User: What shape does this take?
Amino acid sequence: MRGMILPENLPKDFHLMCKQMKLIGPFSQILTMDNLPYKGPIQDASMHLIRNAGVIIEDGCITDIGDFDVLSTNKKITVEEIPGPSVLLPGFVDAHTHICFAGSRAADYAKKIQGKTYQEILAEGGGIHYTVEQTRKANLETLKQGTEKRILRHFSSGVTTMEIKSGYGLSVVDELKMLELISMLNEEIAVDLVPTCLAAHVRPKEFDHNTDYLDFILADILPEVIRKNLSGRVDIFVEDNAFKPEEAERFLMQAKHMGFSLTVHADQFTTGGAIVAAKTGAVSADHLESSKDRDIKALVDNDVAAAVLPGASLGLAMPFAPARRILDAGAGLVIASDWNPGSAPMGDLLTQAALLSNFEKLSFAETMAGMTCRAAKVLGMEDRGILSSGKLADMIAFPTDDYREILYHQGMMKPEMVWKRGVIYNN
Ligand SMILES: [Zn+2]
Assistant: This one.
């Protein structure tokens, strides 16, 4: 069991501790993920691979990267030596999570593996409404503890930037409670958190009609989100038992008009969502397990990134999204965890991506790009996800001298070292 990184070891202003220029290395291999296309297939041979490599870091950013022996000729630089074989990659960016919640859905899971359907579990008081009830009931400290624990577990697995959605509050007070907590944790700990307002997750029991609830979000929740500067992103769950495509389209256009960037839960069980994402100019359409060729084409034609969530397929025992087909059609494939208490409880992004890679025949480059450069772009954070001069020194090192070992171990080889803005956290 790897040691848990304690929050007190991760102060947000810690880059101040890293002002001094230092050289880190030698790494057996560095995969910079630089100069790769944001859309379409990628061969492993197109990756920029540097052997016996080093990185120079100053003030939390990379200032140089290249051959370790050449870089170490500058005797003024302090060297942070890497013992043993090591492969360096950019820190992972998880562009889709729901890790701010209270309560466990282990009881639901037990019923599911006994063969009960989602509808039966819902009727017995489980499902998403149970998580909403628990999250509303939880005091801030309880909600904070659980969320922080998940963030730090993710961080120790190499995720140095993570998106977190609201969506278990579904009222003004409770949606703001979630977003305020994410913002508070973002200030307190070093990991960068990107909050997204998912008030349009499902219609809460207090409302009889979807349109009334969506109007309520537009009139009462989003203006407060803007006023308190809690999120610049809006998401909606487009699905038969959540919000219909035409309801979502109207909602998203109004949210866009208010200044939000858009993302959509699309085509998980039925199609419609990807088309809505394409029509409304969303940055990404996420899920896509049921997408047909015309849905994928709409994403490609409108420059909408395609985020697949293998953790949800594993959680629900359903087929993976057609990631190979999505890439071959020319889309920008992002791989995210969808970590949530119901359909994706595992939360191990690398394991999920490794399994998806095997089932869908994704190259190492395609798999890693989906969790680094391509994921960072979806979040509008192009200062990371690539190791090159000027980018943030968010980096992860695996204990091997051959990058191919990482997917070969199917998620069980974890990074041994994680750097956030140039500061190291050993696992
Ligand atoms: Zn989701």
